[in-house]
Amino acid sequence: MNGDSTGTLRQHRPFCSIIPPHVLDRLATSDDPRHFEPARRTLEHDGALRTRRRVIAVRGFTTTEADADTPAPADTPQRTIYDARHRTRLPGDQVRAEGDAPCQDATVNRAHAGLGATYDLFFKVYGRRSIDDRGLPLNATVHYGEEYNNAFWDGDQMVFGDGDGEIFLDFTLPVDVIGHELTHGITQHTANLEYYGQSGALNESLSDVFGSLIKQYALGQTAADANWLIGEGLLAPGVHGTALRSMKRPGTAYDDPRLGKDPQPAVMKDYVRTSRDNGGVHINSGIPNHAFYLLATELGGNAWERAGRIWYATLTGGELASDADFATFARLTAAAARTLYGEGDETRAVLKAWAQVGVPTS
User: Fold this and answer.
1) Catalytic one among 45, 112, 282, 290?
2) What is the pTM assigned to this prediction?
């Protein structure tokens, strides 16, 4: 069943984090306590959070009459940043509210700015008012846990770890990481894609796509100017890699003896069949990621315009089932392109991009 923000059953809330379990699994087997101790703590904590999310999904969450009476949303974000002070109780102590001046904590200020950059893209380009399109307040907690190697959307708010300083740095550093996780919230409130197999990989890919567009929009980059890296600046000095993922060249973001080699495929013939990582949701997302990159660079100009509008229309149009596979999503993007632009360059570019990655559109 697909949920929406006005229905009687709220969306299931998978635990969506930026660092894939397979990366933490590898670090947890290291002989170096500087690597395995933070990784193990992160894995144990993430496992508990996943269990909690599944319980909420089974129980469901009903809306109230008050939800329907919520005033019309404003055209500006309502951000609040909290400090967990290295504990794991949420939300923590409030340290910056909307309208407050920047504080002395750079992490707090980056989180505040990243929430704003995400709001700006979705509102100014697509007319969406926050995560739920109803002005949902944007809350975030920083300094979560001790050397916590992850950032996640928990169904209600953003949470950022500081990283261990050995493999990962502060998770507020890349704005696309912030945008990626908040986009999971938008997916939760629209198509509600199941977090397993191809639908889960689409869920991850949509977050990468819009995370990249948020960064490009904030920096004023064209599709040709952008490097299409996800999480650039997150890896600590000495790690052999540039980012967590590359939409331009999936499988090339890192190759490090501690992290292993980036396992993402770019085309369907290399699709990875695995029971780990919810059926490889962080791995096989490389295929739709690459399709979007090919589309955006084929069209040229600003990727958030024509290419982004097609993807956004597909996500929010109401036709995308929660268990959609790659081929279904590809067909719907082609249909969205025709609706928006007719049988012109945009539709031809969509069909070409999916053909290049080996996903059928008919």
Assistant:
1) 282
2) 0.91
Architecture of domain 197-357: Orthogonal Bundle (1.10)
Would you call 147 a catalytic residue per the annotation?
no
- 93: tokens are 């102590």
Sign of the CA dihedral 68, 199, 318, 209? positive
Query: What are the φ and ψ backbone dihedral angles of 142, each rounded to 5 degrees?
Result: -110, 170
Q: What is the DSSP code (8-state) at residue 12? A: P
Residue 161 tokens, joined: 């770890």
Which residue in the list 181, 204, 232, 346 is annotated as catalytic? 181
Single-letter code of the amino acid located at 237 = P
Q: How many CB atoms lie within 10 A of CB 32?
A: 10
Residue 7 phi/psi, 5-degree rounding, is: -80, 180
Is residue 305 annotated as part of the catalytic site, yes or no?
Answer: no
User: Where does residue 4 fall: left (phi above 0), alpha (psi -120 to 50 degrees), or beta otherwise?
Assistant: beta
CATH numeric code, 16-189: 3.10.170.10
DSSP per-residue codes, 252-281: -SBEETTTEE----SSGGGPPP-SSHHHHT
Q: How far is CA 189 from the centre of its chain?
A: 14
- Spell out the domain ranges in the chain: 16-189, 197-357
Do strands 229-230 and 245-246 pair parallel, antiparallel, or not at all (unpaired)? antiparallel
CA distance 219 to 190: 27
Q: What is the pLDDT of residues 2-50, one digit of tens each?
A: 433 333 334 456 678 899 888 988 999 888 888 888 888 988 888 777 6
Q: Quote the CA–CA distance of 253 and 288 in Å, as a whole number.
A: 16
Each residue's pLDDT tens digit, 336-362: 999 999 999 999 999 999 999 999 998
